[in-house]
Design brief:
Strand order of the largest sheet of chain B: 3-4-2-1-5-6-7
Organism (chain A): Candidatus Desulfatifera sulfidica
Largest interface: A-B, 56 and 64 residues
CATH class of the largest domain in chain A: Alpha Beta
CATH topology of the largest domain in chain A: Rossmann fold
Number of strands of chain A: 18
InterPro entries (chain A): ATP-grasp (IPR011761), ATP-grasp_succ-CoA_synth-type (IPR013650), ATP_grasp_subdomain_1 (IPR013815), Succ-CoA_synthase_bsu_CS (IPR017866), SUCC_ACL_C (IPR005811), Succ_CoA_ligase-like_bsu (IPR005809), Succinyl-CoA_synth-like (IPR016102)
Pfam families (chain A): ATP-grasp_2 (PF08442), Ligase_CoA (PF00549)
CATH superfamily of the largest domain in chain A: Succinyl-CoA synthetase domains
Strand content of chain B: 15-25%
Number of helices of chain B: 9
Largest sheet of chain B: 7 strands, mixed
EC number (chain A): 6.2.1.5
Keywords (chain A): ATP-binding, Ligase, Magnesium, Metal-binding, Nucleotide-binding, Tricarboxylic acid cycle
Distance between the termini of chain A: 38 Å
Oligomer: heterodimer
Shape of chain A: elongated
Structural class of chain B: alpha/beta
Order of helices and strands of chain B: EHEEEHEHEHEEEEHEHEHEHEH
Radius of gyration of chain B: 19 Å
Number of strands of chain B: 14
Number of helices of chain A: 13
CATH architecture of the largest domain in chain A: 3-Layer(aba) Sandwich
Chain lengths: 387, 294
């Protein structure tokens, strides 16, 4: 789960990590008391969950109250298109208004998890404000990587490697060490999977300040962080995806027309690939999971049926934990309740498959039942040609 | 022959009295696995379907000489359960649980490196040596004992699909392992490939990967350098949109890394037989095995 910049900065404040003074607003009318309170210059920043906001016109430095008004008017409500949002862009529902700083230079700092080596890695560079991938490609010697075994945690020598590596003055080196200790504690205590500050500003007063903040929290850990779970932005999600998540389904909406219901994430991906190979386009990824009940399948089914793009449905189930008879009952029940009128191809294998197929056949519904994936591909091609 | 589990495996189940634990214990026993103990804190002294239940793993191991554990506990307790099994000296630990926090697994993985135990998973279907021992939630009847194929996969049901096709094609399996769909897991592809290469009965291996991370690329490099037996590779997720987690916590294309296309390219560069259409996996394996025997 990604946090908005302003949420990440609030989290930083609770760990006593320096960030610029700022306020979040959702209406332009809220701006003028903030100008009085924070003074000028200010920075007005669009709050959307995507990188590249500056290049997309979502960040503006303003010197006067009029400029602040203009910037806020322009940014609030805009469809911000960045390299990461896709062509449609994302609607800006709130802006962060922050005090401008006297910037002496900009550094880069991030913490992440190396999944292959099971380590926490701190990456830092003298070239703040640039995409770290570009720095890594052009001047890799300007990047310092510090690997931390989570069993020993952050040690003094890690911090010395960092300060000497960046050739920081003794004073700044100490400040940096304090900052990184706090960030490491935040990273571990809040179950972060990524944390990036770009730029980490050194002010002309030789103070550090996190001018940007990107934080991603491990979704699996949210059960122990109710305060972080509450930060999930409902505006950022496709409404169907949010609905599916609330009932415990793994659903991702795509651009195509063939809806899929599959048990297991790997098989669901392979099923999407199969649809594409048959010349059609998958409308979604939907994993009904291991412990799915008839009721959950029915709900998943309803989600597919409320996607107007879906013209046909492919159900691919390999029964392991989820038995085919359970699935079959779920499908039949959902089809009857929703008045299903789309062509459906069902491919089932595994535990209680005969019982599952019997339930489908005797349901009186217009289902095409196939037993192999190759047969399924032929039926999918037929479905595509029908359109 | 087989790898990691066989008829001498003495299994204990952590979380045996839970709904999932009880159901899958009975399924494993029905298949023929030797379940010698269960562990549920506070339920020691009871027995469940004739299996004695203990409060701690150490007690259970002392009393029953269990050498393998299947973990079916909720995600909040999974890391604790794995470390308890490690400290009790359990040789093989299979963690089925999905949704274990990554931070927990960071600690587990580094602790494991100091200890002789082997961990499979988490977020996996488990491991089965057909006809001898099933530790996990896979449907037993689709498997065929006796080899010649080894199967290793990051997925669950996709593995069942692969195994089913092998069985339909008349290709039995020595051992099938689901290593798990999480970003941080115990046993990896290379560990399994190494064991299959050393196992006399295994004549070829099916490797089932998916988007995310670098494990398939590393496996491909290892295969090219070390593996004499044929490997047939499949990758799920060619159509997965970047930046989205496809069900499995570990299945994500981020910053252009971990794409299915890159993994398939690595397979081809390592001269691994690539299966492009899942429906043709069985027939492709038949051909590959026939070619390797001539």
């Amino acid at each position: 789960m990604h946090l908005h910049e302003y949420q990440a900065k609030e989290l930083f404040r609770t760990f006593d990590i320096p960030v610029p003074e700022g306020r979040v607003i959702r209406k332009r009318s809220e701006l003028s008391p903030i100008i009085d309170e924070l003074g000028l210059p200010l920075v007005v920043k669009a709050q959307v969950l995507a990188g590249g906001r500056g290049k997309g016109g979502g960040v503006r430095l303003v010197q006067t109250a009029d400029e602040a008004n203009d910037a806020t008017t322009a940014i609030l409500g805009m469809e911000l298109v960045t390299a990461q949002t896709g062509g449609q862009g994302k609607t800006v529902h709130s802006v962060l208004v922050e005090q401008g700083l006297n910037i002496a230079r900009e550094l880069y700092l991030s913490l992440l998890i190396d999944r292959d080596r099971a380590e926490i890695v701190i990456i830092t560079s003298l070239d703040g404000g640039m995409a770290i991938e570009e720095v890594a490609a052009s001047t890799p010697e300007r990047i310092i990587r510090i690997r931390i075994n989570p069993l020993i945690g952050l040690q003094g020598y890690h911090l010395r490697q960092l300060a000497f590596g960046l050739k920081l003055s003794s004073q700044l080196g100490k400040e940096m060490a304090t900052l990184v200790r706090k960030l490491y504690r935040l990273f571990v205590e809040c179950d972060c999977s990524q944390l990036e500050i770009n730029p980490l500003v050194v002010t002309t007063e030789e103070q550090l300040s996190a001018v940007d903040a990107k934080v991603e929290i491990d979704s699996s850990s949210l059960y122990r962080h109710p305060e972080l779970a509450a930060l999930q932005d409902p505006d950022d999600q496709d409404p169907l995806e949010a609905e599916a998540r609330d009932i415990g389904l793994n659903y991702i909406r795509l651009e195509g027309t063939i809806g899929t219901i599959v048990n297991g994430a790997g098989l669901a991906m392979a099923t999407m690939d199969l649809i594409k190979q048959a010349g059609a386009e998958p409308a979604n990824f939907l994993d009904v999971g291991g412990g799915a009940s008839s009721e959950m399948i029915e709900k998943g089914f309803r989600i597919l049926l409320s996607d107007q793009q879906v013209t046909g449905i492919f159900i691919n189930i390999f029964g392991g934990i989820l038995r085919c008879d359970v699935l079959a009952r779920g499908v039949v029940k959902a089809a009857q309740k929703t008045g299903l009128n789309l062509p459906v191809i069902v491919r089932m294998e595994g535990t209680n498959v005969d019982e599952g197929r019997r339930i489908l056949t005797e349901s009186g519904l217009a289902l095409t039942t196939v037993s192999t994936l190759n047969d399924a591909a032929h039926e999918l091609a037929a479905l595509r040609d029908l359109r | 022959m087989s790898i990691f589990v066989n008829q001498n495996t003495r299994l204990l189940v952590q979380g045996i009295t839970g709904r999932e634990g009880r159901f899958h214990t009975s399924q494993c026993r029905e298949y023929g696995s030797n379940v010698v103990a269960g562990v549920t804190p506070g339920k020691g002294g009871q027995s469940l379907d004739e299996v004695p239940v203990f409060n701690t793993v150490t007690e259970a191991r002392t009393a029953t000489r269990a050498n393998a554990s299947m973990i079916l506990v909720p995600p909040a307790f999974a890391a604790d359960a794995i470390m308890e099994a490690i400290d009790a000296g359990i040789e093989l630990i299979v963690c089925i649980t999905e949704g274990v926090p990554v931070m927990d697994m960071l600690r587990v993985k580094n602790y494991l490196a100091l200890k002789p135990s082997r961990l499979i998973g988490p977020n996996c279907p488990g491991i089965i040596t057909p006809g001898a021992c099933k530790i996990g939630i896979m449907p037993g009847p689709i498997h065929t004992p006796g080899g010649p194929m080894g199967v290793v996969s990051r997925s669950g049901t996709l593995t069942y699909e692969v195994v089913h096709q092998l069985s339909q094609a008349g290709l039995g399996q020595t051992t099938c392992i689901g290593i798990g769909g999480d970003p941080i897991i115990g046993t990896n592809f290379i560990d399994c490939l190494q064991a299959f290469e050393a196992d006399h009965e295994t004549e070829g291996v099916v490797l089932v990967g998916e988007i995310g991370g670098n494990a398939e690329e590393e496996a491909a490099a290892w295969i090219q350098a070390n593996m004499s037996k044929p490997v047939i590779g499949f990758i799920a997720g060619l159509t997965a949109p970047p930046g989205r987690r496809m069900g499995h916590a570990g299945a994500i294309v981020s910053n252009g890394m971990g794409t299915a296309a890159a993994k398939l390219a690595a397979f081809r560069a390592a001269e691994i037989e690539v299966c492009e259409h899942l429906g043709e996996l069985g027939s492709l394996c038949t051909k590959a095995m026939a070619a390797s025997r001539t």
